[in-house]
Specification:
heterotrimer; A mainly beta (268); B alpha/beta (484); C alpha/beta (250); A: 268 residues; mainly beta; 52% strand; B: 484 residues; alpha/beta; 10-stranded mixed β-sheet; 10 helices; disordered N terminus
Chain lengths: 268, 484, 250
């Protein structure tokens, strides 16, 4: 692997010789990074970021797991951005997590330019107080037989607000595309708010696409069941919130990173 | 005003294809000159013999409209509309004071008969009371006497403005105010006719009420206005049908429909919209910019919209419900079919304000040829709407590979006891499916119909039977040549 | 152990229990039988403290620290920590929460209340496996989310496993036999019987006599229209099995 960093930009070039794989840490300069994974190479990259712009290039057959923990600090604001271009048969696993802030937004754009590319795009908003977080995803299926899976979950406590806008575009030539998107939100706080806008734009006919959004609260029957086993209400709520977030957290394949993120969120 | 006979028209417009309602009726018409100004509005108001408050409202709406911009956020493009090049009033010439069917121009009566809507009392449809609107005026309403016995008012809105100014003043514009949007403002300024319906407390309207809209005159916009009020505990099922002649120019249709349901009342509003959609190359067809909205004002009230959108070059329409009363219910069932070069941007708005309010949205979009079909919907749960629930399902089907299907839901939840679910899928009707069914003995049309029917079943189920049959036939006809 | 005096209780504004009286002593197993809609499930939910069920009048007393105590104001978890247990007729599914984590949280919550040291995951794992063996439960159950994708029999076994883990003094088993085949029922009954001691008590709610072949009751009650209309020995259950409920209702 070669790393060329300037004050303004970090450049990672990962080749097949960079194996065995290690977790590459992004440093938060409030600046930008370019991650270029060469054909057939694999990489795991993680970073605790604030204002940031990350560009990812995945060559043919390249694989990348990218975990971004975005922290604005209490009451702070930040905007992050991720732009990914995927070549043939490449695999992207992106995980975004934030506690929000006064105004925390993430723009994620994935262009699936090569046939057979696959993307798993996941996010988690764990919000309390009057924090706000917005995630925008834009997945462009520009080549045939591409697959995208998105799962975004939010926990909204107190008077926090979570926003999700997800756009899936399936171009005319992107036959046999599969695109799935799900936004699940749990409002725990009495004055919590959620805005979900999942969007599909489809121009090819032989595709399987679906999206869904669900907004709900903690099920009182589940609370009762846990209470009936001696668990106090607050602990029961905690347990249910953890259960709710379990599957999205499970999307992080790298064991060490999954544990780290789980601990950061107080989930483990 | 100038007499403007339409005699020199010819119905021979090429490329209209299978649109069987595309004929032009040859009637003597009383038509306003082209253009829009306060004078024209005063002319319309005078023609309708309206009380002064109506004229004032129209002028106020007109002034608001003048400073508003035509909305262009929908997912389609169209050539600019020249509002000064349109005619805002056209009526078949008639003797003053229309008191019986015999006095209606026989050409107009024949037109409706050709459309399957007999207006003569002796030939009227059983079980359906019809208000027939031809260009800018209502030409006849059937079953009126029977309905009067129950205290039901079902009449042209222009008549209601004169006979029930109290109800009009209270409710007209209370759901869709003039400033709501560009087209609603235009409608409020220049609307010419439409239906008015009032169901008194506790009355269950025994027949389906129906309005049939026909645009005939050339260069004429249609701006109808419908107001339905169901008083406490009342029930009414209302059907709306529409067709237009084949013309190679675009015609503007900008209607407003308002529904009001008081405590325990229920309104079911069904539309089979089959305006002329233009030819294969996208020439001609109706521009359909419609604002339809219902207000569940009372507790436990219910408003259900069902629409089958199969016509118009452009459809811009979001029938919605404002759920104010506690425990009120809003429903929206829609099938939108686009073929050739049609564009549909349609969906609904469900605004939950009251406690325990519930809404259901089932939207099915079918797109073929070079058409664009978009679902656009808003579900908004306000802070006071505790235990509100919404379920939305939006499915799209693509037929062929030059069309598009889009889904743009917007969900805003501001109450933590609310439950909102949205699901959407996209699938296609494939040559393999059709082949499979054909290999089991069905012909191609039957096979297509079977697949489409299955896809739209949940919506058709909510239509009155005759309407459901018509809707199925309409879709079959439209898709006949689309499946490769 | 449990004393119910002239209990009237409602759910959603409908009064279901209309003057129910029942007294259960340590070491006893009672059966409560009754036709559909007689109030069996309301009875169990009220005792467990379900928030949708309200006591209109009368009282429910549970023995706490050797004292009969009115439990009306207690939350469901407080009741559970004081040794009350309800085996649910319809166990609730909790996606994402592993059964092992749930059981340990419950065990430690109840244990802490009684001054018992919390078990760490490794010790708890060993403890739970011994309990699971009795119920012939596969080890992999505890890694799965609570009741999610469990078969009917697995859910009921999971209820009894929880009972074995929490070791309550007073347990109500609400139609634990429903949805069970004979083999599963034997396993469940064996699990329940192994938990019977001189110091605890149980109320078994059932629709059928079948379960009572395996869990032998000392006293049988017939519940009808929100009240106990007849009380007898084990023979009463057999009589109901043969003659139905009609003769009792008339």
């Amino acid at each position: 692997m070669t790393v060329e960093s300037t004050d303004k930009q970090q450049m990672f070039r990962i080749s097949r010789r960079s194996m065995p794989m290690a977790v590459v840490r992004l440093v938060d300069h409030g600046a930008s990074a370019v991650i270029h994974v060469e054909a057939g190479a694999e990489a795991v990259v993680a970073g605790i970021l604030s204002d940031s712009s990350v560009e990812v290039i995945l060559e043919e057959g390249a694989k990348l797991e990218l975990v971004r923990v975005v922290e604005a600090g209490p009451g702070g604001s930040c905007a992050s951005r991720l732009v990914v271009t995927q070549a043939k048969d490449s695999v992207l696993r992106s995980f975004y997590v934030t506690h929000g802030g006064r105004m925390v937004s993430d723009d994620l754009s994935v262009t699936m330019a090569g046939e057979g590319a696959e993307a798993f795009i996941n996010g988690l908003h764990d919000l309390s107080g009057s924090e706000r977080a917005d995630s925008h995803t834009h997945v462009d299926h520009a080549a045939p037989s591409t697959t995208s899976n998105q799962l975004y979950k939010s926990i909204v406590r107190d008077q926090a607000c979570s926003g999700f806008l997800g756009r899936i575009l399936v171009r005319r030539d992107a036959q046999l595309t599969r695109a799935y998107q799900l936004s699940k939100n749990m409002i725990v706080g009495a004055a919590g708010r959620v805005e979900a806008r999942p969007q599909l734009e489809i121009f090819a006919d032989d595709v399987k696409c679906s999206h869904g959004a669900a907004i709900g609260q903690i099920d009182e029957e589940q609370i009762f069941y846990l209470q009936a086993r001696g668990i106090a209400r607050a602990a029961a709520v905690d347990l249910l919130v953890r259960g709710f977030l379990q599957d999205v957290l499970g999307q992080i394949r790298h064991d060490g990173l999954r544990t780290e993120v789980g601990q950061r969120l107080g989930l483990l | 005003m100038a007499d403007h006979p339409t005699k020199d028209e010819t119905a021979d417009v090429k490329g209209a294809g299978d649109y069987k309602y595309g004929f032009i009726t040859d009637v003597d018409a009383d038509t306003a000159p082209k253009g829009l100004n306060e004078g024209i509005i005063a002319f319309i108001s005078a023609k309708k013999n309206e009380p002064l408050f109506m004229l004032n409202r129209r002028l106020e709406a007109y002034r608001r409209w003048q400073v508003m911009k035509e909305p262009h956020w929908a997912n389609f493009q169209y050539a600019p509309i020249d509002y000064q090049d349109l005619c805002y009033y056209s009526a078949p010439k008639k003797k003053a004071g229309l008191s019986s069917m015999e006095e209606v121009d026989q050409e107009v009566v024949k037109t409706f008969e050709k459309l399957g809507i007999p207006l003569g009392e002796q030939k009227r449809l059983a079980g359906v009371a019809v208000d027939a609107v031809f260009d800018s005026v209502s030409v006849g309403t059937t079953h009126q006497k029977d309905l009067e016995k129950l205290g039901i008012i079902f009449c042209p809105i222009s008549e209601a403005v004169r006979s029930r100014p109290d109800l009009i003043e209270k409710y007209l514009g209370s759901v869709v105010p003039a400033g709501d949007n560009f087209f609603a403002a235009l409608n409020a300024a220049v609307f010419t006719d439409g239906s008015f319906c009032y169901i008194p407390p506790g009355v269950r309207c025994p027949v389906e009420l129906s309005t049939y809209f026909r645009i005939n005159a050339k260069g004429t916009g249609q701006f109808e206005r419908t107001l339905i009020i169901a008083d406490k505990g009342a029930y009414v099922s209302y059907l709306e049908g529409c067709t237009a002649p084949v013309r190679d120019e675009n015609q503007l249709h900008a209607a407003v429909v308002e529904l009001i349901a008081l405590d325990d009342a229920e309104i079911k509003y069904s539309t089979v919209q089959n305006w002329y959609a233009g030819d294969k190359n996208g020439k001609g067809g109706i521009y359909n910019f419609v604002t339809k909205r219902g207000k569940c004002l009372g507790v436990r009230s219910k408003i259900a919209w069902t629409q089958v959108e199969a016509g118009s070059a452009i459809t811009w329409k979001y029938p919605g419900c404002i759920l104010m009363g506690d425990d009120s219910v809003g429903e929206f069932y829609s099938v939108a079919l686009t073929n050739n070069r049609m564009d549909a941007d349609t969906g609904t708005k469900m605004i939950h304000i009251g406690k325990n309010t519930r809404s259901t949205i089932i939207a099915k979009g079918i797109s073929s040829d070079q058409a664009h079909n978009s679902y656009r919907g808003l579900v908004k749960i306000m802070p006071g709407a505790t235990h509100a629930r919404n379920f939305s399902q939006c499915d799209s089907m693509l037929v062929g590979n030059n069309c598009s299907a889009n889904t743009f839901p917007d969900i805003q939840v501001q109450n933590n006891t609310a439950t909102v679910e949205h699901e959407a899928t996209t699938s296609r009707i494939s040559a393999e499916q059709i082949f499979y069914l054909q290999s089991r003995g069905l012909n191609k049309e039957e096979a297509v119909a079977l697949v489409i029917n299955g896809f739209c079943k949940e919506v058709f189920r909510t239509l009155p039977l005759e309407f459901a049959v018509e809707a199925v036939r309409l879709l079959e006809m439209k898709l006949e040549n689309s499946v490769g | 152990m449990l004393k119910i005096k002239d209990l009237y209780a409602s759910v959603n504004g409908n009064q279901i229990l209309k003057g129910l009286n029942l007294e259960v002593n340590a070491g006893e197993v009672h059966a409560v039988m009754g036709p559909n809609g007689s109030g069996k499930s309301t009875f169990s939910k009220v005792i467990a403290g379900h928030p949708q069920y309200s006591i209109d009048s009368g009282c429910v007393e549970l023995e706490i620290n050797g004292q009969m105590t009115d439990i009306k104001g207690m939350t469901p978890d407080e009741r559970a920590r004081e040794g009350f247990f309800l085996a649910f007729q319809y166990p609730v599914e909790i996606p994402g929460v592993p059964t092992s984590e749930f059981l340990r949280a419950a065990y430690n919550a109840v244990g802490r209340h009684h001054g018992i040291e919390a078990l760490d995951p490794i010790d708890f794992d060993a403890f739970i496996r011994t309990r699971m063996k009795v119920l012939q439960m596969d080890n992999k159950y505890i890694d799965r989310a609570v009741n999610v994708d469990f078969s009917g029999g697995e859910k009921k076994r999971n209820e009894i496993l929880q009972m074995a883990v929490l070791n309550p003094r007073m347990a109500i088993l609400d139609e634990t036999d429903s949805g069970l085949d004979v083999d599963s029922m034997k396993i469940v009954a064996h699990g329940v019987n192994s938990l019977r001691t001189r110091h605890n008590a149980m109320v078994v709610i059932t629709h059928y006599q079948r379960l009572l072949d395996y869990i032998k009751p000392d006293i049988v009650h017939i519940l009808y229209n929100g009240r106990i209309i007849k009380t007898g020995g084990p023979g009463l259950a057999l009589e109901v099995e043969n003659k139905g409920y009609d003769w009792l209702i008339k």
